[in-house]
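Researcher: Structure prediction, please.
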Amino acid sequence: MTTNRCENCGQPVLASDVVCWHCGYKLSPHKELAAGEETAVSVADRSLLEDLSLGVLAGYAGLTLLVMVLFLLVIHNLGQKPLVTVSADVPLRPGWVPVVDTDQSFSVYLPRQWKWLDRTAPEWTEEGRELMAGVGETAVLPWQPLAPDLTPLLLARSEDDNNAFVLVVGSSQLRIAPETAVSRLRQFLPPDTIRSDAITENINKLPQAILFLELPPDAPVLTCQQLYIPAQNNTYILAACAPTERYPRVRQTFQQILASFQPLS
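Model: Predicted structure follows.
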């Protein structure tokens, strides 16, 4: 216990003394009480600091949880909606738009002024049947012996007098390499139907076949650039065609459409 002394004469005094009984000097407030008050203040400060620390930790924990939730949402969205990319080697013109089919299994860029629809569109039944019964059937007819399950997936048409169109079909049965597909296709076609072909890589760095056809070969009415791409769950054939006399006008447009096609599965 601390001994209290008179500030005037130095003699010991009691804690309860107000006046020194040795010399009569009025004593200052008891130092032990002051120390007690100081201790109480220190305890209060320490409690306040602890509360602040807990608040900061809770804030950081909440922020970390929020970041994790946002990260998981982003990953989920990326998994649900595949990214649409275009090869840097394809100089697409201004005004082109990306088109993704309903199942999000492929994407392709088309001129904005073109009209397009997939198999879920209300007009698909009428326009799809009309096209497949005419030039559309001619465009994909060479592939039917190899893939009897060909299914039209997307149709696009130019709105000018070029009468150009793009037809994307899919097959789950046709699962052969591009080189083999071209070789077998030649077996079912008259000579000179396939004017040229090449095996290249698509945007995903996977092999694909590009073909240049004139249909029918004896008196061409339709000239097509066609793309054959075997993907993970489906094989896609893209036929970009126009009447032979108008094909030169849309040749470069067709090249860019084929170059932008990307399987997403």
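Model: The chain has two domains: 4-57, 96-263.
Researcher: Thanks, that helps.
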